[in-house]
Amino acid sequence: MSTGAGLPAASGTLPGQPVLPVIGRGRGAVRQRQPETTAAGPRRGRKVLRGAVSAVLVAAAFGFALPRFASYRSVWASLQAMTWPYALLIGVTAAASLASYWFGICAVLPSLRLREAAAVNLSSNAVANTLPAGGALGMGVSWAMLSSWGVGTEEYVLYTVVSGIWNVFARLGLPVLALLALLTVSRPDPVLITAAAVGLGLLAAAAAGLGLLLHSERVALRADHVLQHAAAIACRLARRQAPSRITGLLAGFRGRAAGLLAARGWRITVTTAAANLILWLVLLACLRGTGLSQAQVPWQTSLAAYAFVRLLTVLPITPGGLGIIELGLVGVLAAGAGPRASAQVTAAVLLWRAVTYLPPIPLGAAAWLVWRHAPALIHASPGQRWPGKPAPH
Question: Which of 12, 96, 162 minimizes the C-alpha distance to 355?
Answer without folding.
Answer: 96
